Amino acid sequence: MKESVKSLVLTLLVLCSLVQSYFLIYRLPGSDPVVKTESDYIKTENMGQESDAESMLFPSQIAIHLGEDRHTIFYPESAFYNLIYSRLKGRQFDGFQRYALDNINWNEIRSSHTGLELEFDEGIPVVLLQRVMQIVPDPLFDGETVSRILIYNTDTDDQVRVFFFSSQGDVVYEATKADLTVQDVRQQADFGKEWVPYTLENGNYIPEQPISMVEAGLNMDTFTTDQMQSSLFFDPSITRYIREKDGSEIYTDSKRSLQVRQNRNWINYTDPAAPSAGENNPGRDVLSAVDFVNEHGGWNGLFRLDQTNGASDGQHTIVFRQYYGTGPYGSFPIVDLPSFHYSEITLNMRQGTITSYERSLIYADEGEWRKEIVELPGGDDLRERIAALKEGSSILKLYPAYFPSLTQEGLLLKPVWAVELSNGSTRILY
């Protein structure tokens, strides 16, 4: 009997020891294990804030069409922009039909009908748009990427028509079952009646009056190289340091590499041997990219999904653009410069896995040392400045933006007109 009791006690002690060892190694359920694999990263504290994809899925601008060739523009974070977009998020869109883009005179519709137009520039995958708008799943439409949404009232049959434009530029989809009334559209368009008038010329909107923006001087700080190393390498202590002739620094663990350009406060991280997770999926890739940035640097300010492009080699490029703006005027994109990579966070993915990551080490800290309302030129003054470009390429887009520069006081954001050309370059009009 005593031997049986001893055996039972010994067995219980062994089991308790095994359970205790498990918790020592893996901690409590839901927490990070002590033992990590080489594919894991260490999350660095005290860096940027975490965010979600939904907060980055918004139009670059909302154009209001008032009929008789009258228009105006609302920019992100302005009161009427937020009101219109929040209302549209609550409406349902269903019953999609596809048409060839060239079958309809779109400029005529914009000029003569009352309506509104949400612009997404390079485009947003429908599967992501469904996360912020009530778009009923449809196999005809779900695989598309949308560059703009046009909503307008017809004059003859008292009907609302809603069109989603493919970013490919050849087809358009009509939501034949849209939860919108003529009164809904008219009421939202009425918000623009007393706003700055714009003229639609060659696909771009020209304000007939100067527009106001806030010139801002922001306090700034920078992430350290040690912070980025700790965040991006499994074991920073085994990384090897290489100094290039151009002054850039490279840290590598023989699999991954981190290039730091101290003179530009910019990093380029690459992981070419990252294990693949499956086929490329634009929607899932964007969500994975957001999660990756959350864990490796975070977000400092307002960002928008600016670009999501696939390539023939299976590489998928995702770009997030930073916006800035306060008060009633709205929020505007910050120009990313070849000599000063500040406003864009770029990730390349292959089959759902991050293979490269680029971002600035600079971030805006709390507080401002300058805040002044300035006016950007409009009307004929702006037209003359556009004509003075004398570029051989056509203008793809004209928009108000911030030009960033570093001063002794900190980061200066100067309001400018930005012009994107068909040759891929961007010109600045002061």
Give a quick rundown of the structure.
The relative contact order is 0.14.
Name the average pLDDT: 87
CATH class of the largest domain: Alpha Beta
Poorly predicted regions are 21-44
Write down the domain tally.
2
Q: What is the number of helical segments per DSSP (H or I, 4+ residues)? A: 8
Report strand %. 35-45%
Separation, N- and C-terminal Cα atoms: 95 Å
What summary fits the major beta sheet? Answer: 9 strands, antiparallel
CATH topology of the largest domain: TATA-Binding Protein
Count of β-strands? 24
CATH architectural type of the largest domain: 2-Layer Sandwich
Q: Overall 3D geometry?
A: globular
For CATH, the homologous superfamily of the largest domain is named as YycH protein, domain 2
* Rg, alpha carbons: 26 Å
The helical percent reads 10-25%
Secondary structure category: alpha+beta
What does this structure look like?
The protein has 430 residues and is of the alpha+beta class. The chain has two domains: 53-206, no CATH class; 214-429, YycH protein, domain 2 (TATA-Binding Protein, 2-Layer Sandwich). Helices cover 20% and strands 41% of the residues. It is built from eight helices and 24 strands. The protein has helices at residues 2-26, 79-89, 106-112, 126-129, 182-190, 225-232, 282-295, 379-387; strands at 61-67, 70-74, 92-100, 114-125, 134-135, 145-153, 160-166, 171-178, 198-201, 204-207, 211-222, 240-243, 249-252, 257-261, 266-270, 302-310, 315-324, 332-333, 344-350, 353-360, 362-376, 395-406, 411-421, 426-429. Strands 12, 13, 14, 15, 16, 17, 18, 19 and 20 form a nine-stranded antiparallel sheet that branches. Strands 2-1-4-6-7-8-3-5 form an eight-stranded mixed sheet. Strands 11, 21, 22, 23 and 24 form a five-stranded antiparallel sheet that branches. The N and C termini lie far apart (95 Å). Residues 21-44 have low confidence and may be disordered.
